[in-house]
Amino acid sequence: MPDAVRPPAEFDFPLSWTGPEGIGASPFDEFAEVETPDVGSDDGQDLALALRRTLGMFATGVTVVTTRRGEQVHGMTANAFMSVSLEPPLVLISVDRRTKMCALLHEGRRYGVSVLCETQAPLSERFAGRAGEDLPEPRFELVRDTPLVQGALAHFVARVERSYWGGDHSLFLGRVEYARHHKGTPLLFHGGRYERLGHVR
Ligand SMILES: Cc1cc2nc3c(=O)[nH]c(=O)nc-3n(C[C@H](O)[C@H](O)[C@H](O)COP(=O)(O)O)c2cc1C
Question: What DSSP string describes 77-109?
Answer without folding.
Answer: EE--EEEEETTTTEEEEEEETTSHHHHH--TT-
